[in-house]
Amino acid sequence: MIDFLRRNIDKNGLYILLGLLALLMALSPEAGAHGVTDGDKGYIQESSGTMIIPFIYLGAKHMVTGYDHLLFLFGVVFFLYRLRDVGIYVTLFAVGHSVTLLAGVIFDFGVNAYIIDAIIGFSIVYKALDNMGAYQRWFGFQPNTKVATLIFGLFHGLGLATKILEFEISSEGLIPNLLAFNVGVEMGQIMGLAMILIVMGYWRRSAGFMRHAYNANVALMVGGFIFVGYQLTGFFIS
Questions:
Q1: What is the pLDDT of residues 193-212, one digit of tens each?
Q2: 3-state secondary structure of 84
Q3: Is 214 left (phi over 0), alpha (psi -120 to 50) or beta?
Q4: Average pLDDT over the chain, rounded to whole?
Q5: Reduced to 3 states, what is the DSSP secondary structure of residue 143?
Q6: By CB neighbour count within 10 A (0-12 exposed, 13-18 middle, 19+ buried), where does 225 fall?
Q7: Cβ atoms of residues 173 and 101 within 8 Å
Q8: What are the residue ranges spanned by the domains of the chain?
């Protein structure tokens, strides 16, 4: 593995990799994939009744600050040049995310938060390897990227539902509040995606984009593995 990375990562790729690692390591445990600040936790637990605007805000805030979602979306749109294609993949992700978020909370089912977040970290690894063409080289076939995006969207939504269930939201106004939260999540997704596409648009115009695309996805893959390891460590020591 070390020799493989040494052959394929140049100097600029190493800068990208080290920058991503520094960012992930700087994040505190409270800033995990589905972390919620203490103030937001208290607000969620103490709230009752229908509060559309506050829950839209909380949903948007979660998505904009949820680096697991943003890294996965970064991988998804990395080689998508047409807005139509971007729209298709992001819609599939949003559908999956919405289904398990709403169903998980309404029907009160979830899984261990560390396990589901480890799976979410693996989704980042999966997409990075897909962008690197690894499945064609290793297995001789290309998995259906649209199906994979939908499936991982389901896991991303289940991760958030699992976290919300821990806060025991009041049943009064639950459905409209959840719908408002989901609307906020999708609004945040649009904002995060817009920032990603702006950066990608400028990068793609540079002569070095294709030269460093592989390195960027190696960095994305390593970041995903770090996140998986972080979550599995938490699972085994908790």
A1: 998 999 888 888 888 888 88
A2: helix
A3: alpha
A4: 82
A5: coil
A6: middle
A7: no
A8: 2-237
